[in-house]
Amino acid sequence: MPNVLVDKVVLPPVYATAFTAAQSAGGGQVTRNALQQTLELSGLPRHIIGQIVLTADTGSGLLTQQDFNLALAMAALAQKNMSPTLESVMFHKDELPVPELAGVESLANSSAERPHSGVALGGNAPDDPWSSAATNDITSSTAAVGALSLTDNEPDQLASKTGKEAFRQPQSESTKPRTANRDNSALQTYVPKINMEEVQWQLDKEEVSIKEAAEKGGIVFKHTNYEVSTRTFSSMVVRRYKDFDWISNYLVTRYPYRMHANLPPKGFPDNRLKGLTRFANAIMRIPFLKRDALVIQFFTNTDEFAHVLKVGNLDMESEEIDPDEELGDTPWSEVQETYAAFDDFYTQVARDEERYRIQITVLEKIARYKQAIGDELNAYSDTLRTANAPRESISGSRKFHVQTASKRALDSDLNELSMSLSDVSLLEKAHGEVLKTISAEYLRRLYDVVVAMKLMMDRMRRTEKRKDIQRVRERNDANRKTLAQLNGESPGPDPADRSSIDRLERLVREDTAEQQKLEHEQRCIEVRFYQELARYKCYESFLQTIYHGYAEEQIKHHSMALSAWKQALSTADDLPADPQGFIAN
User: Fold this and answer.
1) Cα dist from 389 to 62, 395, 418, 582, whole Å
2) Model pLDDT for residues 351-397, shown as the tens digit of each residue
3) Is 409 exposed, middle or buried (0-12, 13-18, 19+ CB in 10 A)?
4) What phi, psi does 226 have (nearest 5°)?
5) Distance CA 536, CA 349 (A)
6) Distances from the Cα of 477 to the Cαs of 93, 302, 432, 472, 500, in angstroms?
7) What is the pTM assigned to this prediction?
8) Where are the beta strands (DSSP E) in 497-558?
């Protein structure tokens, strides 16, 4: 177990001091929130603290001393610029650095004075940073994009279950640190300004159907053509795989900070058709995508798509947005707080990806087992049919070859029983097919959304401008200071010649313009992240469709199986049971 990595290691006194300070009353454990507060004393960046908390917390929200010591060991490694991972703790366990926690003795007092929202200090802290207004580092961030649990004084203020009004944010001044005390009476509801057309979240609805064309394309080198029929446009076009690949790349270029459908790889032709169908339908569910001029051409223009691209006047520039207009009434401080927890949300998305992947694998396994059980039951039922039984020998005494009434009744009833088992066999195979083609397929569509969110966040990480802004700002400040000295506005050397001043003024203007441009781009990234995170959370509403259908299918299957087994039981009860009846008189 990971939490025993430091069990046999002699730890410095600061470990015991920190645990005592953060310990919950009488339980011998600390909450996730108390661990968070303790790690904040280390001065580590928020995303590193979040990573350590997620690693140490086993999921219950309460941590043992072993878990707590493991977290402090990872924090100590991070303070020495080493990787805060379990592997690193294992490697350095005999030479762990001492964690530096400024003011750890006062942690207990400050924790007692800190108001809590949603859970008490001694209760279970939420493991999911999306869904509860816990007082951890991403409290105010998650408030903007998740249906938050309310305080005990607000049981009747929960927003509607539709998700349209389920976004709550504590009102606070943007200048306050996020660990500052908040006034629970000053809560205000903000709904991210996103398109809420319900078709986006209905992943079971299909607007596009795709099938392989009867004829291959190409003269020398043959390729597969696909007939793409779209109900929305009442159209049917023929497209190649490379056309799908082109439209996928176009969407990422045109809308880089949005979630996009995932194009299946070109290999594995048997799965490609399903993947292309999911890809096309995902595009048509998103309101702004299905109104894109080139997307409309892709689904409606009957010309070869290469020709459409050649003659068309294509807009390949990234979309331009007005961040203030996109935000509406949402305060900018809320967007900033949400983006500040970017790494925490990325970790959660990665967890979602792994969870859905496991669920899909398990359902597909169950489906294969069901079909295998159906095949075996069918093979068993075949052995019960009289026509398949081996012929009896006619040598020896004929007394034992005479068909008695019991024997004839047995053969007839076994035929009936064989038919009942055959029915059960068909039910099991049909149930396996439903699990594979509906339940697992729906989960795969939700999994595609998770992957799309992760890829979008990867793009944001690669293109964010905060480091560039800091670099330009520092350079601009230095030039301004030098310019002020040259102009005699501050103590320094005598004013230089006009050319040096003009050159510095030009550099200051250029840097100011570049800084404003970078700040605008960063603002656009943060606004889009805030909106897409809200959209991402809305997709969880599809779980109701998945599990309602799954439970309904289970009930239907087991009801029909119960009827088949009852019929088999009735037939079994009719089988002759008198031993004497099988011996001819």
Assistant:
1) 64, 18, 12, 17
2) 999 999 999 999 999 999 999 999 999 999 999 887 655 555 555 55
3) middle
4) -125, 135
5) 10
6) 45, 57, 67, 8, 17
7) 0.64
8) none
